Amino acid sequence: MTLHSIVIQKLLSTKAHLGRRVAAHHFKQFTYGTRNGMAIIDSDRTLICLRTAVEFIAALAQQKARFMFVNTNSLWDEIIEQMTKKIGCYSPSMNLLWRSGGFLTNSHSPKKFRSRRKKICFGPTQPPDCVVVFDTDRKSSVILEADRLQIPIVSLVDSAMPLECYKKITYPIPANDSVQFVYLVCNLITKTFLLHQKSTASSVAQQEDTREQVERIEEGKSVNKDELLVLPYSLLPISPGVDRTEELLDKLAVLKFNGALGTNMGFHGPKSTIQICDGLTSLDLIVNQIEALHSKYRCSVPLLLMNTTTTHEDTVKLLEKYAKSNVDIHSLKQPQHKSSGGQSGEDELYPGHGAVFLSIMKSGTLDVLLSQGKEYILMVDSDNVAATIDPKILDHLIEKKIEYCIEVVPTAYDADFSNIGSRLQKFELAEIAQSSVKHSTEKFKLVDTGSLWVNLRAIKRLLDTDTLKIEDISVSKETAAGSAIRFFDRAIGVNVPHSRSLSLNKTSDLLLLKSDLYTCDEGVLVQNIARTNPENPVIELGPEFEKVSDLLSRFKSMPDIIGLDSLKVTGDVWFGAGITLKGRVTIAAKPGMKLEIPDGVVIENKDINGPSDI
């Protein structure tokens, strides 16, 4: 019996799969079907949502966040009381407050009120960072208040929950709220907290060793300019509140490099105009992301596009649909030179970031941004389509007065997150590969994602003093050592999740992005929650799929690759509609043979060389 089967049996024993006789339409995505008029909840979906919610709670617990556990069902009092005592969140004077719930919107000052048992309680002076609700149907008022304050909500949901309430829950857990299942959830939360407390105690000594290095960088003292201190994303402070986020975003501008052409994929035009997900291009994604921030927060984040003469005209046409957008979009032209090595003769941007800094300086854009109160600029590479505007990173940079920050990921996926991704480390710049090169795990330990945060006043200081010049920057085609990082006093790297680094260099990358593996949520690419392996499948396509037009013509529709580990296709192969690929799949058509994969087939862990192998 597999581990998955054991876990599912445990869920079934808690009666978590038993829904109600009424199943709301929006809840049907979590149901397996009906039996005797009663909705049956899919245990696999319950397991996925439960794991996601617990991972979120674990991430907050690591940052010592404040939690609010809301319960008004007396059947669960003892269970939740034991949980809060073990994890250190229990307070006899506050326990009645959590049971009576609510009062989030008035939490900025102490309040007296009477609970249901006629006892005086005092409300908290600060709102929680997360609200965990065990009986959602009874505490919809708490959900409304938490949503108004944009506090993340983890909650059990059943098949009869109204849509208005369901939409406000950040991490829903579809299940029957039986005593056994509530006990299981509380047990998982308890073990998560205890595990974090144990790991925190073991890492104290290590953090002490690296604290001096961090202080030296943040204080601007002399450090080795050929080394970079890399900070794990998990060690950043928790996400700032609404007011703080609005303040941070008003200090930010975004610059998108837009000089890359799609000629290596047979596409005539800028790479940023290729439709990658839900009919959207990478330019659409970044504009939609800023629009979503503007609608969610009262802020203004301008978007700068660094074009070349070969990409400017097509970009202007694409941006015509955003004429009435609330995003302030500016097009700039970076100094460029003719490619000496390529046969296409396309214009190339000058290497390094020095040319970018000089360009925005000479055009007057830098002075305009500073006059508008902007302090940082996020530079996004043209190849990375998964870049995210993260206020959490910006908050750390402003608080620690960091002048230069690059986002990196390990070259090899760190499955147990115990090596590079879990602790502060220093790396040689020669160990950080550019995102545009084919990196080696032996030579490089990190990869630059192409997202760069830079302090605008630091740029102006370097340019005004002639410290930063293009000719002074030694450039390597493989490493990030040739960048302008050496010229800044305070520079760090942030080891971000792999989901922040999705490149578009080949048609195999396009297949990943256009499949059901990714969806677009407010301009951010999100991996399908149904995929259990966080690492992307490895896809190799033959020369027959080299061009974008070839890829789109040879696939009648993009296959289901949620369960795919690797795919290798060579020869004259044509794919039908509704195909599902799982595990390790190799499809090789013999020379002179046209191999057609029929509609609706499921291929799992197979080597296919002809129709008889399907």
From TrEMBL:
Keywords: Nucleotidyltransferase, Ribonucleoprotein, Ribosomal protein, Transferase. PROSITE patterns: RIBOSOMAL_S2_1 (PS00962). One of its GO terms (biological process) is translation. Its EC number is 2.7.7.9. InterPro entries: Nucleotide-diphossugar_trans, Ribosomal_uS2, Ribosomal_uS2_CS, Ribosomal_uS2_flav_dom_sf, UDPGP_fam, UDPGP_trans. The keyword Transcription regulation does not apply. One of its GO terms (molecular function) is UTP:glucose-1-phosphate uridylyltransferase activity. GO terms for cellular component: ribonucleoprotein complex; ribosome. PANTHER family: PTHR43511. Belongs to the UDPGP type 1 family. This is UTP--glucose-1-phosphate uridylyltransferase.
